């Protein structure tokens, strides 16, 4: 039996940069680099290069640095990058190409830890005889997550399984990254127009402990697997074994959404979008849970036509299902009932207590966001997402002023982010689907 010991050589191979000073320096290089390139860009404009040429070069370099730093650090930095990646559809076209590549790569890539490190974690979590639990185990990781990596293996009973192993030092790194990223939230705001980065980071920090314990993730996945067992449209792999830093689930092979986004047929795009929307809106009713990590790396389209959903580290528990107030707001916006819409928003805490806001201004602000529900079938496009981001981010507009008067209550933050993330994926997919019929079936309050 192989001995697992913690030698100084092993510590030198740690998978995640753990020293706070080193990680802080890497994260600090992002806003400093952005500022430095902006100054350099002005210099190049003085030498005769056009603004378009300079901006394209700056965007490409900033995107590459974003991926290099966040991807290398993993932990909270990579998780932040993954969260941002679903919003890249809203980035204007002239900036989108480099960011699209860099942010999308964050969804499925990170430098792996060594086989020795992986074996050590498995021994600590599953016991020194961990190898006896598997018929075979592939040391080369099949995929990377924000705080762990996934290995393909065969369980002792012959089932193909996915083994997710947490990076050593992930807990320390995650806390350090999120603290540091919160300091730079305003600078990161420029990377994704129309997205409020500060509450996104606050929410990631608040849910940190849940994601660090894979037993919680396993329990979440068991809940989803039970709710969707035998479903003809959704597959949630069953959990085989779990420990605080290791979770073993059934292995599933399919076409990742990232691949469909890159090169899928229109039929694949539409069906992937429909299945994602069905899963998103039906989960609170069927499982009293909401999958809260929407990025393309967590979804696959299977050959039998189902969607496979993975990674349940971030899950919202909704024992009473989706809030009916959400359906009411959608319905009032669609019907032009601006006064009633404002009343619901005030009741739910969306209007700042010290704000004077007109019902018609709030209605005008929200109406474009329910456009997908005004048609029998709606085509989600990057152009539509960009238009919404620019509209809400235009400092000269009434919509911007109205948005400043509104608030996002803490108990709505997760639902808002997950819904926005799902819509971001639909726009990346360029999917056309009948969203209204899905909302009518599953969203409480909408049909009333």
The total domain count is 2
Straight-line distance between termini: 65 Å
| Helix content estimate | 55-70%
Poorly predicted residue ranges: 1-14, 30-59, 190-195
Radius of gyration: 23 Å
GO molecular function: ATP binding; transferase activity
Family: Belongs to the protein kinase superfamily. ADCK protein kinase family.
Protein name: ABC transporter ATP-binding protein
Organism: Prauserella flavalba
Would you write up a description of this structure?
- It is a single chain.
- The protein is of the alpha+beta class.
- It has two domains: 1-212, no CATH class; 253-448, no CATH class.
- It contains 20 helices and 14 strands.
- The protein has helices at 8-12, 20-46, 51-73, 75-85, 93-106, 115-126, 170-183, 185-189, 197-206, 208-212, 214-227, 257-263, 266-287, 324-335, 338-348, 359-366, 382-393, 398-405, 410-429, 435-442; strands at 134-137, 143-144, 148-155, 160-166, 234-235, 239-243, 246-250, 255-256, 289-291, 299-301, 307-309, 315-317, 378-379, 432-433.
- Strands 1, 2, 3, 4, 6 and 7 form a six-stranded antiparallel β-sheet that branches. Strands 5-11-10-8 form a four-stranded mixed β-sheet.
- α3 packs across α4 (75-85).
- The longest helix has 27 residues, at 20-46.
- The protein is globular and about 65 Å long.
- The termini are far apart.
- The relative contact order is 0.11.
